[in-house]
Amino acid sequence: MKYTSKYISSIIVLLFSLTIQAQDQKKDSVVIKTDRYGFRVGVDLFKLSRSFYEKNYKGLELVGDYRLTKRYFIAGEIGNENKTVTDDRLSFTTKGTYFRAGFDYNLYENWLDMENKIYIGMRYGVSTFSQTLNSYTIYNRNDYFNETTSISSGEKFGGLSAQWIEVVVGMNAKVWNNFYVGFSLRANKMMANNKPENFDNLYIPGFHRTYDGDFGVGFNYTVSYFFPIYKTKTTVTVKTKK
Amino acid sequence: MALAWTLTGCEKDDICDAATPTTPRLIVNFYDINNPTALKTVTNLAIVGEGLEDGLLFNGKSTILMPLKTTADLTKYRFILNFGNDDTSLVNEDNLEFRYARSNVFISRACGFKTVFVLDAENPYILTDAAAPDELWIKDITLIQSLILTENEVHLQIYF
């Protein structure tokens, strides 16, 4: 977690530095600044592409946000994951659906008709899933009878769930027309984890892999489309630099 | 950069800690039959699992730890006292068989599962003489704990 926070702070510094841009204007002028409001929907290309190149993974995440005020957005993601993990001592498959909802706060001062978003946000995540124990080996430090073999199981642990809080930093940039690309990084803290009897929630859809700790990290890379609903216009005075 | 950190940031802390209790062994204490409260050390006791050539050797110890089979509900050992002694009249072999039920218990992602045992209520152990009878050197056995869940307690007492 120490590294996570260090990393997030460095990302924030990086993003802030992007907001400082040279402004070189010849004279005072008054311009109309248009703010468009609406909702944006997209897909996480990271999970989508992993589904193609990683044979033990299938995942899809749809993202969306709705611009509520100048700087606040209601934001969320919904996704589905199917992941098989084969470790040294056991193999399991997790299948499930997750939903995250929260808000983003845009830190970026958009210039004129720019519609970029560099944001921090929070989410509350809920995941429901099942886990299947495919196979395992018995850990025996004194394997006198030489019995270390993989045991097939197939036991399914259903009706599992987990809830967590996420802190998000990310950006969204308009690339063409109403198309945007963006990425986000997330630090997750588990709030509730409904574990099965005689097994554990080793992978939680939407939260990622877990070990003993309550912390997780996430990442997405999105392409999205903006559906404008209404506009507001404000006049901005542009001052000449001496 | 972000991607690189995400991938390398997930440390593989998936090595089973040596301090984690895993599959327990059956713990036996040896006592003096003539002075039943006094521990007695064994001299070159070899215990050899059924079907195996190599045994586990204990010398000068009053406590031994015996692995049980994790793939069968029965483990049979030959208990050979004074194993390898030139004076073959001192060598004595008894058979000790343990019957139990097993269950596999999840430990952690790194350690996987362990097997724990519950000794049979009717016949937890069966003591017999060797194939070539040489009288029993084990005079008495007391079961202390039929649940073999950890290596933190003694399960069986043998008097000789």
Task: Please characterize this protein's 3D structure.
The complex is a heterodimer of chains A (242) and B (160). Chain A has 242 residues and is mainly beta. Chain A has one domain (43-139, 149-234): Porin (Beta Barrel). Chain A has two helices and ten strands; from the N terminus they run H-E-H-E-E-E-E-E-E-E-E-E. Chain A has helices at residues 2-19, 45-53, and strands at 29-44, 57-67, 72-86, 90-106, 117-136, 151-176, 179-194, 203-204, 208-209, 215-238. An eight-stranded antiparallel barrel of chain A has the order 1-2-3-4-5-6-7-10. Chain A has a two-stranded antiparallel ribbon with strand order 8-9. In chain A, a hairpin with a 2-residue loop joins strand 6 and strand 7. The longest helix of chain A has 18 residues, at 2-19. Chain A is elongated and about 90 Å long. Chain A starts with a helix and ends with a strand. Chain B is mainly β and 160 residues long. Chain B has one domain. Helix content of chain B is 5%, strand content 45%. Chain B contains one helix and twelve strands; from the N terminus they run H-E-E-E-E-E-E-E-E-E-E-E-E. In chain B, the strands form two sheets. In chain B, strands 3, 4, 6, 7, 8, 9 and 11 form a seven-stranded antiparallel beta sheet that branches. In chain B, strands 1, 2, 5, 10 and 12 form a five-stranded mixed beta sheet that branches. The radius of gyration of chain B is 20 Å and the shape is globular. Mean pLDDT of chain B is 89; it is low at 4-11. The chains are: A mainly beta (242), B mainly beta (160). The A-B interface holds A 3-4, 7, 11, 87-90, 136-145, 147, 149, 151, 183, 185, 198-200, 202, 209, 211-212, 217, 219 and B 2-3, 5-6, 9-10, 13-14, 16, 22-23, 25, 49, 52, 56, 65, 67, 69-71, 75, 104-115.
